[in-house]
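Standup notes
- HV: blocked on the assembly model, inputs below
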Amino acid sequence: MTGIPSATDAAGPSLAGPSKGLIRIIHVYPREMSIYGDLGNTRALAWRARRHGYDVEVLDHHPGAPWPRDAHLLMGGGGQDSGQARVEEDLAANAATLRALAADGVPMLMICGMYQLFGNAFVTVEGLELPGLGILDVTTRGRTHRMIGRVVVDSPMGVVVGYENHSGATTLGPGQQPFARVRVGHGNNGSDGTEGALRDHVIGCYLHGPVLPANPAVADWLIGYAAQVATGRDFEPGPIDDAVADQARTRQVHRVTELASPRPLSRWRRKVGL
Amino acid sequence: MLRTRATIAVGKAARAAARLRGGGSALPGLVVERLDPGFLTRMLADLPGGVVVLSGTNGKTTTTKMLVAVLRAHGRRVFTNPTGSNFTRGVISSMLGVVPASGRLDADTAVLELDEAHALRFADAVPPTHALLLNVARDQLDRFAEIDATAALLRRLAEQVRTAVVLNHDDSFVARIRPSIPAGVQVRWFGIDPALVDGLPSLYEADVRDDAGVEPEPLSSGDAMLRPRLPDAFTVSFGDGVDLGPVTLAQPGLAAMINATAAVAMARVLVGDRFDIRKTEQALRELEPAFGRGEVIDADGAPLELVLVKNPAAFTVALGTYGHRPVATMVAINDNDADGEDVSWLYDVSFASLRAGGVALTSGQRAYDMALRLQYDDVPVTAVEPDLEAGLDRFLEELPGRPRRIFCTYTAMMELRRLLQTRYGLANFGE
């Protein structure tokens, strides 16, 4: 009676004329690491890539299975501590492959738990240090209090809205660029105003929501590099009507900013429903 | 006894005041909890039929209602908290409504639905004699943080039970509580006939913790085995000559059948040899759906169904239950504290079954996020109106005479119910 979550049904042929090429998306550990609606990211990537005119294949990678060949885009999500423990061995076994893919410019989106595992290390509350893949120069320390709430950040792809729910506090290494700057929310650690990390074409971040459906600019950034990796040509985007996504994002950005605002005027406007 | 009477007097006054203000049902309970922390313990300590606690993520309210109806059909005098106010203060508030000033509860058995987190607080005050544990699903993760944590809360509840526990055989989180149950406490299971599981929709979350010892013992004689006869009827077999049904419930769908099986399993544990098949069947057949759980409202001569969807499991089951009967559909999603602030969960539900009929309107604080979710599943959406009142007006006016259905989160349901109450003069909340 238990279903293993999967977004493989989102795959399919180009929906915008003749195919510009095949993009293969790998959802890593959908069973263990997709508790917070992360399947929605994979779904959004496939949906958009097909409307940009690409054929799309979606593969699930489970712990212990052979690593899929010719990956063009990797997506990994958040999990519970128990799920995280189960994927560590598989990640270690595929570490060299993943580092090579990242170095070759394969785009990746790693959320929450997978973001932490892509860093140098995770230090538990008890002080135990668990090594990570080191693809992103970040270190995460377990905390007893979770950082939970609505988030608005400014990224290179524009303003991004999401929801965070993590107990790990992440700090960036000296040369590591953050993914975004926090407008509202805790971000990496609640103190330095950064959110996530960005290196080459790899994004690690704490943004659930899921992040891609309402922030299509981030999705298209990933798809663009995936198209390059897959076809050897520049990304050839198709026309997509993002009116609903834009409404969802801008309204939520406005709400979250207002809710977080200490200014009396905002509180008054909220009260009278303006 | 003097203290009990004084507390009841104050509590009843608070209840009257709260009702005048039209306020929430939990306030008087809160007053009493502060004033007299031992009140609940004293009131429930001596019930001869026991104190039965129901907990789990989905189906608490419906299952509680079913269990109470079956027990009452057997002549039990039951105290319960029927308003869905499932914190300890909610239990106290319900009690203030029925207890006479003398302070003696007219009941032999208490059947209480409790929120997972509050079930433990309740058990600290009143150790339950019986517990019925339904399921663990992701729900309001911003409050409970993780599914594993919710499972741990239910486990700790089960450890405190004194007489008997009834567990869901098909939910791996609940089934794994079995080894934690103290020796001497009876364990019974309810579940779906394993021969019929294939072809039913996926109802439960996968427990991804260490796989060792996952499989519970198979259902055996005395456990309640559900055999759905879709779409509407079901039987329950105990494997020892006691067989119920076929029964058809007023509330459609597999989830309601599972809830009924759970209720019947617990009822049999409670009444023992006096368990009466005919009375049980009749009680289940006559039961009206709980408030907002498949409730049907007469809206200008056309049926309007309100369906509460608060997490992916519930939404998936609701779509499986209702999706194939085409009606005009509205989806109302709020993200207040009681709904869960994070609407990520909408992406763990497949809306493909709505593709053919489309959705007339999305509404609520996250109306555009819902419309966007439907867009990514290629479900056509006719209109988006974040304001619930304007949305409801439009939904009712543009499609006169058509059967309608509204899928809604908790606070959206409360608001819609209030609006519908004004429009069509419905019964009061929780009554």
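- HV (later): unblocked. The two ends of chain B are 30 Å apart (CA to CA). The longest strand of chain B covers residues 186-192.
- Next: hand off to the docking folks.
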